[in-house]
Design brief:
single chain; D-amino Acid Aminotransferase, Chain A, domain 1; 4 domains; eight-stranded mixed β-sheet; seven-stranded mixed β-sheet; 26% strand; globular
């Protein structure tokens, strides 16, 4: 059975039918893991980075090959292919791996700074782009075969190719043979000439009723980076050259769903601040500021890109993206919901684990609490996951696999003797004061959510305000 080769109209139903036939032939335990493979949620308690370390140990007995294996993984996110290549050809074969159309590249990520002055002091002359609040997509186009092939990958590299039929024709019309680019797809109201909030855009993420959703919630796709063009990788090309090539590929037409992102050259903090408030007035989140000579570094978060987001008085200048780790049974009215609060954590890359940062009990309506309970029950596990660090006094009534990412806003970050985020033998942990739920980040994997390192940086910025 090769589900990947089933394409076109009705492909979801055909894939489901084939899968049902397979499951009917399996014992219950085998069926459970086949379903988890399809969902991409094996829940084994480790990340792909642990697999990369393991491959290095397999080859040389230590982690010395991690950097080379990770580089190959960053440009070709297929751990099975990486393992096969290493096993059959050794590290030389890994060093010769290259970008392949149809296999995603790990996206670069932006750092954050609290003010326009901090950013200009850091970067000097730079460019700023609007920060749209939509789906970050990586688009792969291959027109070398008998018919064009288009793949859309999400921020966390899930294949979303069937979800955007309205974007297929505009992508096919681009005059290239092969292409990998990045863009932000965002809901757009042509009647008011305004962007829709993320809560509306996210309604396009579905497996059924896709054509109807495309009509009800039309998208515009704003391309902001070019990674591969006509067989040539562009990762080592400076940003300004990649952007110049990108602009040449997209015809400027307001009626075309495919656009390229605007860009403004910045030389002073005043310029950046004015442009930032201009974007806020248009209903956007803020701006992303980029170093003009920066290469594209897959899988890396650094100061080549810096985001500046809306600040709210009396609150952190940014929200925190957290993984939900479990929930607590409710009391009073919430006892009828079966949930009264939930535990969230951030990711510690150094230890490859999630560490607790807050117990959240506000920000949801009655309906939203019930919906959250349903989501968490689907991710429930019988014991604390091995990649979760939590003080016993915070153990939830129900543990969940750390796979649901939510947006949390808080008044401030404080030091905590109880929460484990950033906690060491000599340092207290970090916690969120007055945390409240703001929504889900279905476009992010738990490992791509806020990290302990970022939380520490936000704590330091907060102290200097």
């Amino acid at each position: 059975m090769n589900l990947e080769k089933i394409e076109g109209t009705g492909s979801q139903e055909e894939k489901a039918g084939k899968l049902f036939e397979l499951l009917a032939q399996l014992d219950p335990i085998s069926a459970k893991y086949v379903v988890r493979i399809v969902l991409g949620k094996l829940r084994l308690g480790f990340s792909d980075m642990t697999v990369i370390d393991a491959l290095s140990w397999m080859e040389v007995g230590d982690k010395s090959l991690r950097a080379k294996i990770e580089h190959a993984y960053n440009i070709s996110v297929d751990s099975g292919l990486i393992a096969k290549t290493l096993k059959e050809g050794g590290i030389k074969a890994i060093e010769q791996m290259h970008i392949t159309i149809g296999i995603p590249i790990r996206p670069a990520a932006a750092e954050r700074l609290p003010t326009a002055k901090d950013i200009v002091d850091k970067l000097g002359k730079c460019v700023a782009q609007p920060k749209l609040d939509g789906f970050r997509l990586q688009i792969h186009l291959d027109k070398t075969g008998p018919r064009p092939k288009i793949r859309f990958f999400s921020r966390n590299l899930k294949d979303m190719s069937d979800m955007f039929p309205d974007l297929v024709a505009p992508i096919e019309a681009v005059d290239v043979q092969t292409l990998i680019c990045e863009g932000e797809a965002i809901g757009y109201d042509a009647n008011t000439d305004t962007f829709l909030p993320f809560q509306e855009t996210v309604k396009r993420k579905r497996k059924h009723g896709i054509e109807q959703a495309a009509t009800e919630f039309p998208l515009k796709l704003f391309l902001f980076d070019l990674l591969y063009l006509n067989g040539e990788p562009l990762l080592d090309m400076p940003h300004e050259q990649r952007y110049h090539l990108l602009k040449k590929l997209v015809k400027h037409d307001q009626n075309n769903p495919l656009q390229f992102i605007a860009e403004k050259e910045i030389t002073t903090a005043k310029q950046l601040e004015e442009y930032f408030y201009e974007m806020i007035e248009e209903g956007l989140e803020g701006v992303v500021v980029k170093r003009m000579n920066a290469i594209y570094q897959p899988g890396k978060r650094n100061f080549n890109w810096i985001k500046l987001k809306r600040q709210e008085e009396g609150e952190l200048e940014d929200t925190i993206d957290c993984a939900i780790l479990g929930y607590y049974y409710g009391a009073g009215k919430r006892a009828t919901f079966g949930i009264g609060a939930f535990l969230v954590g951030v990711f510690n890359k150094g230890h490859d684990r999630f560490e607790t940062v807050a117990k959240v009990g506000t920000g949801l309506s009655d309906v939203a609490w019930k919906e959250l309970r349903t989501k968490l029950d689907a991710a429930a596990v019988t014991h604390k996951p091995v990649n979760v660090e939590c003080a016993k006094e915070l153990y939830p009534d129900v543990w969940t696999a750390p796979e649901i990412v939510c947006i949390i806003r808080a008044d401030e970050i404080t030091k905590s003797p109880t929460h484990t985020a950033g906690k060491t033998a000599h340092e207290l942990g970090y916690a969120l004061r007055f945390p409240r739920f703001m929504g889900y980040r279905e476009d992010k994997s738990p490992e791509d959510a806020t990290t302990v390192f970022e939380l520490k940086e936000m704590f330091e910025h907060q102290k200097s305000r």
